[in-house]
């Protein structure tokens, strides 16, 4: 435990700590200047380029899943990445999303519920559509509830 604390180097005035707080404030301000999105919007987001893990990566569409009100007040939002690859359709946490279930989104694909994650507003480029079909919304909600072990009865 001592090694963890020894890794942080602060001068006697604690200036490194002040710089960190200032940096977080700047990041928060920049993020809050970016648009917020509503639940069920489909957005283009950057998920990074880490090829050493099993997480989805790259610039791709995602469904905004966090509540619209929360998204307006927060610099982050929860999103469900989408992929056009139709493998794994039979998995519990993959939900097929037909392009006819959406407004403005022209591709069918899979919502990767097991990879739901927070993204900073700065990682989102633009809205490309929205999930509009009630049955698709219910399927995604049920998959999220099952994934997190939430009883829906």
Question: How would you describe this protein?
Answer:
- The protein has 153 residues and is an alpha+beta fold.
- It has two domains: 1-33; 36-148, SH3 type barrels (Roll).
- It is 29% helix and 27% strand.
- The protein contains four helices and eight strands; from the N terminus they run H-H-E-E-H-E-E-E-E-E-E-H.
- Strands 1, 2, 3, 4, 5, 6, 7 and 8 form an eight-stranded antiparallel beta sheet that branches.
- It is globular and about 50 Å long.
- The model is unreliable at 1-8 (pLDDT under 50).
How would you summarize what this structure contains?
With 153 residues, the protein is an alpha+beta fold. Helix content is 29%, strand content 27%.
Number of strands: 8
Radius of gyration: 19 Å
Query: Mean pLDDT across all residues, rounded?
Result: 87
Largest sheet geometry:
8 strands, antiparallel
Number of helical segments with 4 or more residues = 4
Distance between the termini: 44 Å
Examine the coordinates and then state which fold CATH places here, giving the name of the CATH topology of the largest domain: SH3 type barrels
User: What is the number of independent domains?
Assistant: 2
**What structural class results from the helix and strand content?**
alpha+beta
Any guess at the CATH architecture of the largest domain? Roll
Give me the secondary-structure topology.
Blueprint: H1 2-6, H2 15-33, E1 41-46, E2 59-64, H3 68-73, E3 76-83, E4 94-97, E5 102-103, E6 109-112, E7 117-120, E8 124-131, H4 134-148
Antiparallel strand pairs: 1-2, 1-8, 2-3, 3-6, 3-7, 4-6, 5-8
Features:
single chain; 153 residues; alpha+beta; SH3 type barrels; 2 domains; eight-stranded antiparallel sheet; 4 helices; 8 strands; 27% strand; disordered N terminus
